[in-house]
Amino acid sequence: MARPNTAEPRTHRLEARIAPKVLDLIKRAAEAKGSSLSDFVVAAAREAAARELDEQNMIRLSAEEQR
What we know:
Elements: H1 20-33, H2 37-65
């Protein structure tokens, strides 16, 4: 499957050691989505990072409003 268009070239590498069952789960999910393993993992990590930062920003703003 073709990679999605990105504004930046992919020049950096990310490595992780994971359990075989987790790798199998991720591979099956990527295949089900019609995505490469790499594209699937990068997209999932990007989405999780954006969600986490949004949540932290909301918590920070809420705390500031309570002052």
